Amino acid sequence: MGDYHGIIINRSQKNRSIFKEMDIIGKKNILGGIIVLYKVSVSENNLQDIIKKIRKNMSCRLLFKRQEFYAHFYRGNELIIVYKNKVFNAAVDQRTWKEAIEYGKSLGIIEKQLDFKPNRIEDETY
Question: Which domain holds residue 36?
């Protein structure tokens, strides 16, 4: 079925050398490059190891402000949402996201940011 694609914010990781362990297949600069969204490719065999490393390395700050983050991975109909202290397995169908969204909101992430997109290879734009 192929590799998983994932979206990870550069600032979500304390040590950004973690990105060297993944194939970066795209990136999108936001706010003049202060925030970079990395689109990565991870093999099925390496996915759980990468998720563990991302969780362990996840920051809780954006510049000088407390900020929680998440990353997400997708393949076919699968969607894996990764927070520092919790992982959710869902589908690309938004009806399966409720628990992950509620958890993100409980961490202070605004609902607008909890869109987990792109979540299908067909929807990728960078």
Answer: 4-123
